[in-house]
Structure formats: C-alpha cells, structure tokens
C-alpha cells in the first residue's frame, strides 16, 4: 500500500511533511500513521489535490473556491493519544470528545506538551497564524451549542470503535451538525458495517485508498431525512435468582443491553452469600450498563449503591438502567484504576464491592488494570466486608487478590470464569 495519499512531489505533500517536521518526537508514538493520513487528507482536499474519497484529482476539475477552507471546523472523536488534535489544530479549529475519561486526560496532556514543542520550534499554523486552541466537550451533544461550529463547513473524524453500536450512536448525534464524517482505523477492522451505518445519514459513502495498514471510510452529502436509530438501546435481562430487569445501554457501553456470563456467575455466588449476611452498601468498580449493580441491590436490599466507570457511555447507561428498575443508586465518572483519581476521594467504605475487571487492551491481554482495581477495592472495603471478583479462569487472580486485599476463597468456577471472595486482613 502507498505511504501517503498525496503525490510525493506535490506542493500538498511538501506542506504535510513540513508540518510533521515540527514534531520529530512523534515518530515513535502510537497513533501517528492515522494522524498523518488525516493531515494528508485535509491538506490535499484544500489544495484540490485529492477528491472526497482521498484519490488524486489529476485531470479532474476542482473548484478552488469550494475547497480552499475545507474544513473550517473539525470534531475529533476518541483521539486516544492526542496526536490528531495536536496536528490538525495547526490547520483548523478542532473540538474533541473522548468517551473514556483516561483517554480525555491523555489527549489534554499530549496537546499541552506537543503544542509547547511547536511554539519552541517557532512554527505557526499552516497559513502563518498560531495553532488554534483545542476545545474539549464532555458530552458529544454539546457540539450543537458551540458557536465556533456555526460558521463554515464542519467535518467529524471518528476513530473506529470496536463496537458498531458506538459508531452508530456517534453518527446519529453528529449527522445534523456536520457535512462530512470520516471514520478512520486499521483496514482489517473496517467492515462493511461502517459503510452501512454512514449510509443511514449520508447520501455518499467513499472508501479511501489504504495507507500502510490504515484506511478511511467517508460519509458526505447529509440526508435531509436520515434513518438514524435512537439511544440508549433497551433490553431485558432475566436471572433466575433476581428476576427480570430492564437494561439501557448507550452505544459505547461494554456488553450493550446484554449480561455477560461472568456477571451472571458473580450474581449466583452473591445469592449464596446472602444466606449468611446482607450488605448495607454496595460498590461496583467498572459498572458498565449497570445490570450487575442493579441486580445486586435488588437481591441484597442494600441501602446504598454506587457505580464507578471510566466511560461516559457506561455511566449514562448505568443511571438509566437503575432508574428503569426503580433502584436508587449513584453513578460517577471516574478512573478507578488511577490511584490518584479525585472522584474516588472521600467515598468511604462499602460492605460489598463487585469487580468484573477488563483484561484486554485492544487485542492484547492486559492485567495491570485489574490489579489497580483490586487496590481501589481494598482501599474502600469496610471491616468485615467482602470483595467479589469474577475473572477469566486462565488468569488465576486468586494469589493476586490474596496479596492486595486479603484472605480469599473460591465461590464458583465454570469452564470460563471463576468467582473469588476476598476479605481484609
């Protein structure tokens, strides 16, 4: 595949290389190939070198008047490393949204650090002006109220999520406010489903040439009557010991409106424990769609319930799930895997803490997040209370739970999952 969308000897290619040369420290950072592809695309479109699909326009008429300022505003969704925001802000006004709190913080730190590097190099924006400040919104729907997005053409860049529902909801929110949506990701992860979701709201869908291992799928010409679904999704989960619970889930929420087998095994174990003791308070670190916490509250009759999650979609989903079932809980946005997370300060202690920790970072197995969540559980566990942890059996977390929290015993195990109960020493 090509190393760039741009013809190597074109003025656009030189301009792209000049911009990247301002930040030599980016060469080894993750996320650079996609950021560079977006730089090439924006500059190529502005100079009339590339058409909407990202292909060479040689021999094709392109109106300079229509392309010169494209885009004037750019929305970046889930730029996990901050490289896209840093580079593209030197070309246009950039607004960012990240579903995950930790990624939003990484982006903000990267933009601040790399912007300082650009200033020290004495290089201004593409047209000789200073790089535009990067705006961040806490909710994607807030873009409707940004005055900066009321002038000129607005594009959106969506970094392809693993869950198609996340993309579907993002497109649904953005479609009324943008002229173009660019979904960018690894070529092997860009299914035809992306084309289908863009076609719900846009009259034209193009697939770009591949650059390295990456590709863009581009929706343009917004439909006046799009067929966009509504969120949160609604579903029902039935558990023999808890009964029927309504579930609400936003697109980026893990597991959607379904329960996972591990959470069901954890509830089975909890029901057995409740024969001996009933907790007054329950904490779920990584509450997802809220089904596990809501089920635990219903089963135990606890007076206090709190969910914490690093995902804004999960927090909104858990609140909606609890409300749909008439269960009173609080849900807060916070990174429970961060020992310095301010949202967790002063939460107090809980009689029962639920853990169903993630073990993947992308496609790689990763267990450090689980260890950090165990440490957070130990910090907030009341004397005499218990932490119930469910995990994939091959991870063998029991020894780690023993060392971080205290004496631990196995409550349940099947072919896939294990549930361990841990108490403080």
Q: What is the CATH topology of the largest domain? A: Rossmann fold
Distance between the termini: 58 Å
> Which value, in Å, is the CA radius of gyration?
24 Å
Could you state the CATH homologous superfamily of the largest domain? Vaccinia Virus protein VP39
Name the CATH architecture of the largest domain.
Answer: 3-Layer(aba) Sandwich
Stretches with pLDDT under 50, minimum 5 residues: 120-129
The general outline is elongated
**CATH class annotation of the largest domain:** Alpha Beta
Which class do the helix and strand fractions yield? alpha/beta
How many structural units, i.e. domains? 2
Q: Round the mean pLDDT to the nearest integer and report it.
A: 89
Number of helices: 12
How many beta strands in the DSSP annotation? 18
Please state how the strands of the largest beta sheet are arranged side by side.
3-2-1-4-5-7-6
Order of helices and strands: HHHEHEHEEHEHEEEEHEHEHEEEEHEHEE
